[in-house]
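Have a close read of the entry that follows and walk me through the local backbone shapes. See right below:
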Amino acid sequence: MKVLITGGAGYIGSTIASALEDSGHTPVILDSLITGRPEFIRGRIFYKEDIADEAALRRIFSEHPDIFAVIHCAALIVVPESVTRPYEYYLDNVCKSVELFRILNSLGCKRLVFSSSASIYGNADNFMVTEESPLQPLSPYARTKYMMEMILRDFSAAYGMKGIALRYFNPIGADPQLRSGIHARYPTHILGKLVDVAVGKLPELEITGVNWPTRDGTGLRDYIHVWDLARAHVLAVEGFDRAFERAGNPPDNYLVINLGTGRGVTVRELVAAFEKVYGQELKKVEKPPRPGDTAGSYANADTALRLIGWKAELPIEEGIRDALRWGKKRKEVLGYE
């Protein structure tokens, strides 16, 4: 089947494209390349366009009328940046998604998998969140994801579309075949920074926030291998209609599915695991939390197993190994370390 991926030249979108290809499907990539990388397109069907460009979307669907579903990954994603630049985040993530959903509906494309975020949950008492946990997005970035979900839900209920929101926390690692990986020159995610310290790009690792109410004071996260994440998107598309049947065909035509490992890992624990895989200790310094940071939580993923037959399979050590391997190959692929 053909699947349109918005943001398909980014870290997660390109990995999903590889997973689709490995499963015998054809990804069609729509990406403005504002943050995505042309190196990740690799001869795939590609349109360099904005997701809210109606003429572009109509051209895509006229040239590929057999597109089965859309996976919507395109978004600005840096939490601290969203605090200082909320306008850009609400414009790119929310306003353009409204137009995207409207255009897709007018084109008769009724199946949409939304790459959402578990950051829209509030702080859970035991740190574990289910799909029924209270929502309390605590940063502009998280609020844009919440709004995008609510818009998709309303569109699904009103216009006969069907939406699946996949909520997940912190992707780590790279495509195991090293076709793509983290591409930001200055990664904001902890594992990207760990790799940069290991290869000498950064002098030390800043551990931001050490007084959270967790077992060691550092933030608790659900680190999920990006390949596991990509597989979940493929399974959601392949089993799209079946997932709704298994859920009892909810009247609002909308499903929420958490993706996670089912266990929380603190920043200190991730650093210790990295040092064990890497084989040496890194220089570290403690810093205050960044704007928008929270104590964190992890996702219960029982619903994913029940509705789309997915569970996380790769341990964080595998994600660390793949991130280190990608760190060595990055310059060869992207032209910079």
Observations:
- The mean pLDDT is 95.
- The domain at 2-174+222-260+298-313 is CATH 3.40.50.720 (Rossmann fold).
- The chain is about 40% helix and 20% strand.
- The CA atoms of residues 128 and 186 lie 30 Å apart.
